[in-house]
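Hi support team,

I've been running sequence recovery on a batch of backbones for a student project. Most finish fine, but this one hangs at about 90% for roughly twenty minutes before it completes. I'm not sure whether the input is malformed or the queue is just slow. I've pasted the structure tokens below so you can try to reproduce it. Let me know if you need the job ID as well.

Thanks,
M.K.
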């Protein structure tokens, strides 16, 4: 089901183009369908405005949530296609940093609201993960401390020592945090308790 307003549901079959292009397996048709779908999303979000009330699954009931979510979905899934083709990929620093912020917010939200999700195991006596981008300007503050507390995940931006650190270019840190790059990628460095970082990555996953 697709909800277009806070109180209204619409079956997917009634959403124009939701099933994809009619010509299955046609790369040109798929490319055109993706381009048109993207235009429709952008136009709809702009027309609605960021404060428009809509349904949302993360406790944020405005169109701004979806603008942000779609931006990061496209960022990561474009990386999937680009990496599969063996091509270089880089994300705008502000987008990459906000994608990490949002991912941490999603993990914390799911941990609070979905008891059966593996994220519930991300708890502990203050053990910490530090993410450190090595190629950004200081004013972006592209560093994060993620703590596993008894009450759940807590995080904030900034530099602080932790049990394990993941260091590298911001795009690579983002993609590793989304499990698109292996921790052994040449441009990344893991310092400290690698098992803790792997524990996080195994449980902070969705889809």
């Amino acid at each position: 089901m697709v909800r277009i307003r806070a109180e209204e549901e619409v079956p997917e079959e009634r959403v124009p183009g939701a099933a994809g292009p009619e010509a299955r397996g046609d790369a040109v048709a798929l490319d055109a369908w993706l381009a048109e779908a993207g235009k429709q999303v952008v136009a709809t979000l702009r027309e609605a405005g960021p404060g428009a009330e809509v349904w949302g699954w993360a406790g944020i009931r405005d169109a701004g949530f979806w603008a942000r979510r779609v931006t990061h979905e496209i960022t990561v899934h474009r990386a999937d296609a680009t990496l599969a083709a063996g091509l270089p990929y880089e994300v705008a620093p502000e987008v990459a940093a906000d994608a990490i912020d949002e991912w941490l917010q999603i993990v914390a939200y799911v941990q609070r609201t979905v008891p059966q999700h593996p994220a519930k195991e991300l708890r502990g006596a203050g053990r910490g993960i530090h993410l450190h981008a090595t190629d950004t300007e200081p004013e972006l503050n592209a560093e994060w401390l993620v703590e596993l507390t008894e009450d759940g995940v807590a995080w904030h931006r900034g530099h602080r020592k932790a049990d394990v650190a993941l260091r590298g270019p911001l795009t690579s840190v983002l993609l590793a945090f989304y499990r698109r790059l292996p921790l052994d990628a040449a441009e990344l460095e893991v310092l400290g308790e690698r098992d803790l970082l792997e524990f996080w990555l195994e449980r902070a996953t969705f889809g």
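--
Follow-up from support: It reproduced on our side and the slowdown came from queue contention, not your input. The chain is about 40% helix and 15% strand. No action needed from you.
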